UniProtKB/TrEMBL annotation:
It comes from the Eukaryota. SMART domains: S_TKc (SM00220). This is Protein kinase domain-containing protein. Coiled coil: none annotated. It holds the Pfam family Pkinase. The keyword Nuclease does not apply. It comes from Homalodisca liturata. Residues 12-207 form the Protein kinase domain. Keywords: ATP-binding, Kinase, Nucleotide-binding, Serine/threonine-protein kinase, Transferase. Belongs to the protein kinase superfamily. CAMK Ser/Thr protein kinase family. ATP binds at K40. GO terms for molecular function: ATP binding; protein serine/threonine kinase activity.
Length: 207
């Protein structure tokens, strides 16, 4: 589903930079004549390009109200450009920190949203692999804004651990784990998120 015949600029007006990660940049973009979206741009030099087509094909088939939707995919000689839903609200951790911690009601609402997304992914035999605060985004700044889980990370060349230690399940080994174990690792990460929501800080390793 990589669009080799068209260009991002033919369908979208690319706007300001709104985010930056270790391997990608995110721009606000306007679908010509339609709605605002986000464009995540990866440098192909950082990706396992042989795995990208099947990974992208899997991502575009996913459809769930609590997961960021992918609308278009473009490829150039040096970049992979993925157009997704636009989230202009805060990351989950930013909202938690602003209020010091969530109430039980606020936490339960967020957990219900995340579990719904994970239940759908796991029913498709697809672990997410990155259930971290920076991958959970509120769609707007409104207090009742919808929370969504970002798309699963792209396969990267880097061999460094992609999971922060605090979110890494004790039983998880990226080289050996089965799909079932990788899905259970998502639930471990969610457990850490629940702790952060209620206490406003990460648990220590001793805990």
């Amino acid at each position: 589903l990589l669009d080799r015949s068209g260009r991002l600029e033919d369908s979208y007006i690319v706007g300001v930079l709104i985010g930056r990660g270790s391997y990608s940049m995110v721009h606000k973009c306007l679908h010509k004549g339609k709605s605002e979206r986000a464009c995540k741009v990866y440098k192909k030099a950082h990706l396992q390009t042989g795995l990208v087509p099947s990974h992208v094909n899997m991502l575009v088939k996913l459809s769930h109200p609590n997961i960021m939707a992918i609308h278009d995919v473009f490829e150039t000689d040096v970049e992979l450009q993925i157009v997704t839903d636009l989230a202009m609200g805060e990351e989950l951790l930013e909202r938690i920190e602003r209020s010091e911690h969530y109430s039980e009601r606020e936490a339960s609402q967020a957990v219900h949203t995340i579990l719904s997304a994970l239940e759908y992914l796991h029913s498709q035999d697809q672990p997410h692999g990155a259930v971290f605060p920076e991958n959970l985004l509120y769609q707007t700044e409104a207090p009742n804004a919808k929370l969504k889980l970002s798309e699963m990370p792209m396969p990267k060349l880097s061999q460094s651990p992609s999971t922060p230690q605090i979110y890494s399940a004790p039983h998880f080994d990226s080289e050996l784990s089965t799909t079932a174990l990788r899905c259970s690792a998502d639930i471990w990460s969610l457990g850490i998120l629940i702790y952060i929501m209620l206490w406003g800080s990460e648990p220590t390793l001793e805990e």
